[in-house]
Write a structure and sequence with these properties.
The chain is built from 13 helices and 13 strands. With 380 residues, the chain is α/β, with parallel strands linked by helices. Strand 5 and strand 6 form a beta hairpin.
């Protein structure tokens, strides 16, 4: 698979062809996705291998718990970072085995880490990872801590993937790239216009939470449980109308600091008699409507949407999104990048950009003061 990439910054100190690995664990906290890709001197990637591992339940629980203040959290965060890095190392091993490559064949790993706090308005964002441990375990240099430089420059530090979307797909054709992870975010690509990218609100995050609470299942497979219920219109209006964040203009980003169990439980007060299936159906409608509302505010009627992330496999979600949007709704697979590969490939690209001293952010997306080289490197 070949995707044409375009350089982002005018000042490129050197360019080199190399192989990098991208590792991503998102806000759904369900697993680690990895992609090994070769980037040409002009930035064109070929995906060589893909791999993923599920997070151990105890680690997943700890990472979710660490999204809120708790006892002895510094120690617990350090241990969780070690555990997550071990999972990352397992993905790297699988990628090397699949591709029949050695650590010396890989220029760097681009590792996102697990976001547990995201407060750019206070000047910080926290992604748990032990990059030195990962470099030791894999024998490969690790580039990590991608978001903090953008935040230091006054930006949101997120979303970062729109920079890769512009590089991969260009702006000659108008399209929306929609990531349906724990949080939904969009990249709006249009000819002769600046790229717009921002979070739109919860996607899988609240759906998974409610499903786990009432069924014991980790997620609502294909959205079948939501499809068995009916949208409660007054509750949907309450969800949308009671949260000022939805009305904020971009640049904006969010996460579990806002959309969490406390947020949901507070808004369910007075709606306790609604059947759990109907609440699930309403949460799915919240995901769809917040996406459509956000895109419509950018005057993009008639522009096709290409979805990726775990939510792109939720048939009911994709069905309702297609019904709510006035143009084609498909997945990024039709553009040459699989739905589970997009974010991991983006961090492989960000590692490549770092090695080549090429800016990895889009100031018009994050609100940063300018282009910045993102990440720090832990050499092998």
């Amino acid at each position: 698979m070949t995707v044409t990439c375009r350089l982002l910054a005018a000042d490129v100190f050197f360019m080199s062809a190399c192989r990098t690995i991208g590792l991503m664990s998102g806000t759904s906290v369900d697993g680690v996705d990895g992609v090994l890709a070769r980037f040409s001197e002009t930035g064109q990637p070929d995906i060589i291998a893909q791999a993923s591992v599920e997070l151990p339940e105890a680690l997943r629980h700890e990472l979710l718990t660490l999204n809120a203040p708790g006892e002895n959290e510094l120690h617990r965060a350090a241990m969780a970072a070690n555990g997550l890095s071990d999972c990352y190392a397992r993905v790297v091993a699988k990628l090397l085995e699949t591709s029949n490559l050695k650590p010396a064949d890989i220029a760097a790993i681009g590792a996102h880490g697990q976001t547990v706090r995201h407060r750019p308005e206070l000047g910080y964002t926290t992604q748990l990872l032990a990059p030195a441990r990962l470099a030791e375990q894999t024998g490969i240099s690790v580039v990590a801590d991608f978001r903090s430089r953008d935040v230091a420059a006054g930006g949101q530090g997120a979303p970062l993937v729109p920079a890769f979307h512009r590089a991969a797909f260009g702006t000659e054709t108008a399209r929306v790239i929609l990531n349906l992870g724990g949080i939904a975010n969009v990249t709006l690509l249009r000819p002769n216009q600046a790229v717009i990218g921002f979070d739109t609100g919860p996607a899988n995050m609240l759906l998974d939470l409610w499903c786990q609470r009432h069924t014991g299942e980790p997620f609502d497979s294909d959205g079948q449980w939501a499809a068995s219920g009916s949208t409660h219109q007054k509750l949907l209006e309450h969800f949308l109308g009671s949260e000022p964040w939805f009305d904020l203009p971009p640049p904006k980003s969010t996460g579990r600091d806002l959309f969490n169990a406390h947020w949901l439980d507070r808004r369910l007060v007075g709606f306790e008699t609604i059947a759990p299936t109907d609440t699930q159906a309403t949460l799915l409608a919240l995901t769809v409507q917040s996406i459509v509302m956000a895109i419509n505010k950018q005057d993009l009627a008639g522009v096709p949407i290409y979805a990726c992330g775990g939510g792109a496999r939720n048939r009911e979600l994709m069905k309702q999104l297609a019904n709510a949007w006035d143009a084609e709704v498909s997945t990024t697979a039709s553009l040459g990048i699989g739905t589970q590969d997009m974010e991991a490939l983006a961090f492989a690209w960000l590692a490549w950009a770092h090695l080549n001293k090429n800016a990895g952010n889009l100031p018009e997306v994050t609100g940063a003061d300018g282009y910045r080289i993102l990440g720090a490197c832990w050499p092998a």
